[in-house]
Design goal:
By secondary structure, this protein is α/β, with parallel strands linked by helices. The protein contains 13 helices and 9 strands. The chain starts with 5 loop residues before the first strand and ends in a 30-residue tail after the last helix. The protein is globular. Strands 1, 2, 3, 4, 5, 6, 7, 8 and 9 form a 9-stranded mixed sheet that branches. It has helices spanning 19-27, 47-52, 67-77, 96-106, 127-141, 159-165, 176-185, 206-227, 237-252, 264-275, 278-288, 290-320, 322-325; strands spanning 6-12, 34-40, 57-60, 82-86, 90-92, 110-117, 145-147, 154-158, 189-200.
Length: 355
């Protein structure tokens, strides 16, 4: 029996430093048959030139439209029975596609098989990046099994499932993977496995990292409000409480001006923040030692503050803005209906353009 064709779809926007590594890793997979499709979302760096030199199919959106549109454009052009989405800042292990296909063929009840990032960065740029990569690794390792969201940067989806659930919401430039996971998990199991691996080129500077996490946390609030429960995966109650404790430690810090005894409040809250994710800190200690753990703890604390602050601001935004509350409401064609995969595209028109 012939093996199913896999289409590796790589959305890209201004990742010239890593897209070459990403494409090369896709081309070096042990699995066959396989095609590689890069969808450039109108990059302003040299990403397009780097991609075209690799001899793969390269499409380009008419204008910058977001990763959801880029993924939809690649899926529309793909010929494979299985769609393997991987972001352009991720380099797959050689057997990643093969492992994902094995899981999907063995379990037809799965709607998606998601991989995880390894605990070392794709490109070692800074200690902040090393900390963030370890944090992401621990969170994903805690999520192994069935989840209710999608790791769309490293995931395989059967085409039949993608057609049934429908494309990524083209109106969402961020958090589109959370929305998609909620839609899919209502019908299929989404599995996270440690056997499908890739290395990620994460943020190398703290300020852009915390800004990104703040923004994403704020944008998730309408979805949190609709489902009224924690997602099944790394959004655990203890981890969420730990993040809130970190924000509480910062907010309560001025109490120390009233006297030394009041300093115990932010110190205790900071301790609760660490206790909320204790297994992660133990892993980092065993992996990198005490000196690194000190730096890691400061970075993790900063990310927790950013996430909690984003949720707090998002909660206020949700209360005052009806449009924000309706952000994830169906406002575009449902599964099985015609949907534009790029701005101004019409049925029968080729998505993007081939290099």
């Amino acid at each position: 029996m012939p093996r199913p064709l896999v289409s590796v779809v790589i959305p890209n926007y201004n990742y010239g430093n890593s897209i070459g590594l990403c494409i090369d890793a896709a081309l070096q997979q042990t699995y066959d048959p396989l095609e590689v499709i890069v969808v450039d979302d109108h990059s302003t760096d040299d990403s397009l030139r780097i991609a075209r030199r690799r001899g793969v199919t390269v499409l380009q959106t008419p204008r910058n439209s977001g990763v959801a549109v880029a993924r939809n454009t690649g899926a529309a052009a793909a010929r494979g029975e299985i769609l393997f989405f991987v972001d352009s800042d991720v380099a797959l292990r050689p057997d990643a596609v093969e492992k994902a296909v094995e899981e999907l063929l063995a379990h037809p009840e799965y709607g998606a098989v998601c991989g995880i990032y390894e605990d070392e960065p794709l490109i070692r740029d800074s200690i902040v990046e090393e900390c963030r990569v370890l944090q992401a690794y621990c969170w994903r390792m805690d999520s192994l099994g069935t989840v209710s969201f999608l790791f769309s940067s490293l995931t395989a989806i059967p085409r039949r499932v993608f057609q049934e659930i429908g494309p990524f919401n083209p109106l969402l430039r961020q958090t589109e993977e959370v929305d998609y996971g909620q839609r899919m998990s209502a019908h299929y199991q989404i599995m996270v496995t440690p056997h499908v691996l890739g290395r990620h080129d994460d943020d190398e500077k703290l300020l852009p990292l915390v800004r990104k996490l703040f923004r994403r946390a704020r944008l998730r609030v309408p979805l949190f409000a609709r489902r009224r429960r924690f997602a099944k995966g790394f959004e655990t109650a203890s981890r969420s409480m730990g993040a809130m404790a970190a924000l509480g430690a910062v907010v309560s810090l001025p109490l120390a001006l009233s006297g030394p005894a009041w300093l115990l409040v932010p110190v205790a809250l900071a301790g609760l923040s660490v206790a909320g994710d204790l297994s992660m800190y133990r892993y980092v200690l065993n992996r990198r030692g005490w000196r690194f753990l000190v730096v890691f703890t400061s970075v993790a604390f900063s990310t927790n503050v950013a996430i909690s602050a984003g949720i707090a601001v998002g909660a206020v935004h949700w209360l005052v803005s009806g449009r924000f509350r309706r952000m994830y409401a169906p406002q575009w064609p449902a599964a099985g209906e015609q949907v534009l995969t790029a701005p101004e595209q019409r049925p029968g028109q080729t998505p993007g353009m081939t290099a």
